[in-house]
Amino acid sequence: MLKEIDLDKIYDIREYPDKHSGRCDNCDTAQFKSTIPKGEFIRQCAKCGMKKRV
Ligand SMILES: [Zn+2]
């Protein structure tokens, strides 16, 4: 599992599954902003900004 979250990095949910499904690994928030740059669905935490490719 992750020890430190790098907020500049985009994690991949296949490598780093959610600790709690649908919640941010870093701050446990369930609110996200989603963007789809280059056809990839990126979920960004609304609170801390952690990004995950889902
Ligand atoms: Zn977060």
Key features of this structure:
single chain; 54 residues; mainly beta; four-stranded mixed sheet; binds zinc ion
Describe the structure.
With 54 residues, the chain is an all-beta fold. The protein has one domain (10-53). The protein is 0% helix and 26% strand. It has no helices and four strands. It has strands spanning 10-12, 32-35, 42-45, 51-53. A four-stranded mixed beta sheet has the order 1-4-3-2, with no helix packed on it. A hairpin with a 6-residue loop joins strand 2 and strand 3 (42-45). It is globular and about 30 Å long. Bound molecules: zinc ion. The site of zinc ion has 8 residues, from loops.
> Biggest β-sheet: count, sense, barrel?
4 strands, mixed
> Ligands bound here?
zinc ion
Helix content: under 10%
Give me the number of helical elements: 0
Number of domains: 1
Straight-line N-to-C gap: 17 Å
What does the overall shape look like?
Answer: globular
For the secondary structure, the number of strands is: 4
Average residue-wise pLDDT: 94
Low-confidence segments: none
Q: Secondary-structure element order, as H and E?
A: EEEE
How do the strands line up in the largest sheet?
Answer: 1-4-3-2
Q: What amount of the residues lies in strands?
A: 25-35%
- Structural class from helices and strands? mainly beta
Computed over alpha carbons, the radius of gyration is 10 Å
